Amino acid sequence: MGAADAQTKRPLCFLLLGPPGAGKGTQSAIIARRTGVARISTGEMLRDAIARKTPLGEQAAPLMDNGNLVPDSLLVALIAERVTEADCTNGFLLDGFPRTVNQAESLDRLVADRGMELVVMNFDVPRAVLLRRLSGRRWCPNCQATYHVETSPSKKPGICDQCGSKLIQRPDDRENVVAKRLEAYEAQTVPVIQHYEKRGPVHRVDGYRDVDDVFAEVEQYLTGAMS
Ligand code: AP5
Question: Which of 27, 105, 116, 120 has its CA 20 to 30 A from that of 37?
Answer without folding.
Answer: 105
